[in-house]
Design brief:
By secondary structure, the chain is α+β, with helices and mostly antiparallel strands. The protein contains 6 helices and 17 strands. It has a 4-stranded antiparallel sheet, with no helix packed on it. A hairpin with a 2-residue loop joins strand 15 and strand 16. Helix 2 runs antiparallel to helix 3.
Length: 360
């Protein structure tokens, strides 16, 4: 199975020469569910992890509902619960200014409870949650990765629950040399009680697909260039961010396709970190599919027509109909309201019900 990103309808580096120096190569991975071995590159597949090397566990505290046994610990919990209820009351009353001064005390009580729990449950701490295999890449398949000298395997794992401050899985990256692994370990089963199901991937094969990317508007340092691009795209059928700049989907390197304002993390020494891997939930979105949906995927992708409109009471909403169906705003009603005819906008999008064995 191969997947190929279609050519772009316009050449951004010609339209905006300043972008030429910002171009990066990204490797779209196009995960395809199927059996893989530790000797292959994969997403969510088995790792070439040495049997004599301990499997990594998350060393960050996780939510733990177990009660504390000590009187001192229970007293701290009581104070924490009372303060938590007070904070909730202030928030419900809209007195947000009063919440801030009290929150550090709540955090301090939470820290005390964690210390008590570490001591009382030292033999079975909540922090020892097995990391989950997310990706394995061999240098022969993904030479674009910055493999340290003497290594040829990159392994990415994460803790499968949200962690502060970004409310996302906590990742780890390991580099190793395949020839030094003689016996492969079996990964422990994920902790299904504590894990978030959406962070437990199915084994998938990958099909590397190289594309040229440009930074999204928010990552451009020139306000003047950003303004010219925004003015240009008003007269186009393509959106710069959605269709022309950074690829959506799971990929290695390139620019980030942000779902929020850019937040580039820094290392402990204060250096901006480089983008290594994006793990996404979909290949493309309802607008980006026109330029990013793989050519081969068009053969099985089903489409529908999304119709947006305003109701007579001012509310805006939408409905979906077949691609060949006609929407009649004069007879259609929703929520007991008629449709404002001049507000109707139609768009062809991939159907959420599109399915194909193995596509993920």
């Amino acid at each position: 199975m191969t997947f190929t990103t279609p050519d772009k309808p316009v050449d951004l580096a010609v339209l905006f020469p300043e972008l030429a120096g910002l171009a990066r190569t990204a490797v779209r991975l196009h995960p395809w569910q199927g059996e893989v071995t530790p000797q292959e590159s994969s997403l969510g597949g088995p790792l070439l992890w040495p049997a004599d090397e301990p499997w990594p566990v998350c060393t960050v505290d996780h939510d733990d509902p177990r009660p504390l046994a000590s009187a001192e610990g229970r007293e701290v919990q009581r104070r924490r619960d009372e303060l938590g209820e007070r904070l909730n009351e202030l928030a419900r009353a809209g007195e947000h200014a009063a919440v801030g001064p009290l929150y550090p005390e709540f955090q301090a009580l939470e820290a005390e409870i964690r210390d008590f729990r570490r001591a009382e449950y030292a033999e079975n701490p909540a922090m020892a949650l097995p990391m989950v295999a997310i990706a394995q890449f061999y240098a022969r398949d993904l030479p674009e990765l910055p493999f340290p000298e003497g290594t040829d395997v990159c392994q990415v794992l994460w803790c499968p629950i949200d962690h502060e401050p970004h409310y996302a899985p906590r990742p780890e990256v390991h580099w190793r040399t395949a020839a030094t692994v003689s016996e492969v370990a079996t990964a422990p089963e994920p902790n299904s009680e504590l894990s978030d199901d959406c962070y437990l991937p199915a084994p998938c094969r990958i099909t590397p697909d190289r594309v040229r990317e440009f930074p999204e508007l928010a990552d451009l340092s020139s306000d003047e260039l950003r303004e010219r691009i925004e003015k240009w795209e008003k007269d186009q059928d393509w959106g710069y961010n959605e269709n022309l700049s950074a690829a959506p989907g799971t990929k290695i390197g390139g620019w980030i396709s942000w779902i929020q304002d850019p937040v580039w993390p820094e290392c402990a020494q204060g250096h901006q970190m480089a983008h290594l891997l994006t793990v996404a939930t979909a290949e493309s979105g309802s607008r980006s599919w026109k330029t990013w949906l793989p050519v081969e995927a068009l053969a099985w992708t089903k489409f529908e027509k999304r119709v947006r409109f305003a109701l007579a009471d001012g509310r805006t909403t939408s409905t979906s109909i077949g691609v060949d169906e006609q929407f009649d705003p004069t007879t259609f009603t929703m929520l007991g309201q008629s449709v404002v005819p001049e507000s109707v906008e139609e768009e062809i999008i991939p159907s959420p019900t599109t399915s194909r064995a193995g596509w993920t």
